[in-house]
Design goal:
By secondary structure, the protein is of the alpha/beta class. It has two domains: 7-214, Rossmann fold (3-Layer(aba) Sandwich), CATH 3.40.50.300; 222-314, Alpha-Beta Plaits (2-Layer Sandwich), CATH 3.30.70. It is built from eleven helices and 15 strands. The strands form four sheets. The protein has a six-stranded mixed sheet, sandwiched between helices. Helix 3 (94-105) packs across helix 4 (111-118) and helix 9 (233-242) packs across helix 10 (261-270). The protein is elongated, with a radius of gyration of 24 Å. The chain starts with 6 loop residues before the first strand and ends with a strand. Bound molecules: adenosine-5'-triphosphate. Adenosine-5'-triphosphate (ATP) binds next to strand 2 and helix 1. This is ABC-2 type transport system ATP-binding protein. One of its GO terms (molecular function) is ATP binding. Keywords: ATP-binding, Nucleotide-binding, Transport. InterPro entries: AAA+_ATPase, ABC_transporter-like_ATP-bd, P-loop_NTPase. Belongs to the ABC transporter superfamily.
Length: 315
């Protein structure tokens, strides 16, 4: 087991002139789990990771590994493996790239064949990188991060551009790293891309935190609901209460925590209430994510101003 250490971001802000790239951001990334760091393009993910890795100075706040900033880590490469911008020389082989890096970083040369094996490119190790596919380059980037056998991995968009086989492989790979006790932080601008790879999510938009926690909580929010409305909302509310159904009141009716409209209709019938609307609210994780990052309150929680897709229309 590796002893992963938590990543702690606290009150972090970064200003580039008039642009606020990161705005009072706080979250924690736990060891033993894969955490998706999500947000649309320009949300501030790369800037946060660059501050975390000591490449950019924060305007305010802290970004630490187990309480220490990157620059104060006694053995940084053996603590944190990071892949931000990978640039490879097309004329050199994967093995040569890794050997040079290991030597310069004072890491044991025996790690080179080990990491090539680990990321599944050992058989191509002596080919020039210029002929590598995008997927193979992504694997080579990962090999770099693993050279110091670190307990923490920080990966910027590692799934971007991979083919289905590569995506399947990386899912298993990330999970395996976390199961070993490592802290794994993976950024992406698409929830759907990392949905099957991550345990936790940290979602940011315009530099600010909009949501953090287990992915399963987000899935719960995104489960199907029923929309019901009546000319007499007071009586409908009473009927729903009577049936023990949970709901929130929206602009166009009640959003009932019940996937089956039949059950909601029955509750109204029992309560003697006329219904003016009754239909299923079809939602999904991606819609829930988009409604979060678009700067709106989560429509599935309690909001009445956010349009949500219902059978192709809007509520
Ligand atoms: N060096 C810089 N100088 C000026 N503005 C910058 C700089 N780096 C980032 N920004 C701005 O900060 C904001 C956040 O950018 P950042 O690259 O961190 O977002 P991101 O979430 O990683 O998006 P992407 O996935 O597109 O890289 C953007 O408005 C970007 O234009």
């Amino acid at each position: 087991m590796k002893s992963g250490i938590p990543i702690e971001i606290s009150g972090l802000s970064k200003q580039f002139g008039h642009v606020t790239a990161v705005d009072d951001l706080s979250f924690t990334v736990e060891p033993g789990r894969v955490t998706g760091f999500l947000g649309p393009n320009g949300a501030g993910k790369t800037t946060t990771l660059r501050v975390l890795l000591g490449l950019v100075r924060a305007t305010a706040g802290t970004a630490t590994f187990g309480g220490a900033p990157y620059r104060d880590l006694p053995k940084p490469l053996e603590t944190v493996g990071a892949a931000l911008d990978a640039n490879f020389h097309p004329g050199r082989t994967a093995r040569s790239h890794l050997k040079v890096y290991a030597t310069a970083a004072g890491l044991p040369p025996a790690r080179v064949p080990a990491v090539l094996e680990q990321v599944g490119i050992a058989e191509f190790a002596d080919r020039r990188v210029g002929g590598y596919s995008l997927g193979m380059r992504q694997r080579l980037s990962l090999a770099y991060t693993l050279l110091g056998d670190p307990g923490v991995l920080v990966l910027d968009e590692p799934i971007n551009g991979l083919d289905p086989e590569g995506i399947k492989w990386i899912r298993g790979f990330l999970q395996h790293l976390a199961q070993d006790g490592r802290t794994v932080l993976v950024s992406s601008h698409l929830l759907s891309e990392v949905q099957q790879s991550v345990d936790d999510v940290v979602i940011i938009s315009r530099g600010r935190l909009v949501r953090s926690g287990p992915l399963s909580n987000l899935e719960l929010d995104a489960s199907p609901r029923t929309i019901a409305d009546s000319p007499d909302r007071l009586r409908l509310a009473a009927a729903l209460d009577q049936a023990g159904l949970e709901y929130t009141e929206g602009r166009n009716g009640f959003i009932v925590v019940e996937p089956d409209p039949g059950r909601v209709g029955h509750a109204a019938f029992v309560g003697g209430v006329e219904l003016s609307a009754l239909h299923r609210l079809r939602s999904g994780l991606e819609e829930s994510f988009l409604s979060l990052v678009n700067g709106e309150t989560n429509a599935l929680a309690d909001d009445e101003a956010t349009p949500v897709v219902v059978d192709g229309g809007e509520v």
